[in-house]
Amino acid sequence: xxxxxxxxxxxxxxxxxxxxxxxxxxxxxxxxxxxxxxxxxxxxxxxxxxxxxxxxxxxxxxxxxxxxxxxxxxxxxxxxxxxxxxxxxxxxxxxxxxxxxxxxxxxxxxxxxxxxxxxxxxxxxxxxxxxxxxxxxxxxxxxxxxxxxxxxxxxxxxxxxxxxxxxxxxxxxxxxxxxxxxxxxxxxxxxxxxxxxxxxxxxxxxxxxxxxxxxxxxxxxxxxxxxxxxxxxxxxxxxxxxxxxxxxxxxxxxxxxxxxxxxxxxxxxxxxxxxxxxxxxxxxxxxxxxxxxxxxxxxxxxxxxxxxxxxxxxxxxxxxxxxxxxxxxxx
Length: 331
Hints:
By secondary structure, the protein is an alpha/beta fold. It has 13 helices and ten strands.
């Protein structure tokens, strides 16, 4: 990236698939003259296969003035969320993205824009991310891609993949920090009224579902366990309540729910802890006891490992959101 000319930044869009949030974030970072903050001059524009009026994923009309030929002179190519998975990117678009990368451009995907890069073969053998909701779909469609659903973004040098929605802010601030320094990234973050760096990853925002159980006997045992999380719930104890041997219980549990008793209990305890962190003022030590982790240290370790942030940071994030909502209702 040179400093003697504007850096050409192209945001690839397609009619009906333009991610409104990703479009806004990209325009906020690259669409203004912020040389006073230490950023270079940017030549920012939208690019499409057929320039003209298009609509975003929310139906807002936008005007796209440039065709894919602009990618041949772009320093940064960004792809917003590809909202409709039944619309495969065209060979013309895929070739243009491949050629831009081969020529040396930096490629950034926002949310499900990673599907376009994967279809182009640019993510093979790389660790990447996308919105946690679609991470399994990305991994299933492209087995050569290593998908990490827990992080906000992944930097592979000239390819950066960001997770869903607001993680586009994190991804582009990281790019700014990497290319033009922490001072520029911090100044931009202040201008955007966002933190220059968020702790943890998107794992803290994943609503992990409970494995469903269609087995009436097992279902009754699991309901009982859900109401006794503070107890020492061993496989042996659960097996006795199910009138089975521990080995038979574990085998039937896995066959019915798709997971192990230990993993199920851990998930339920973490979910209960999240609710208490969000809705109560109970200290971490008390929450650890109430949900069955025993010690606060063990609780902190498991929570941080699974959610990417400490219990305290999780509480601060979500309690702040509740306080703001209360203030809005009071107003």
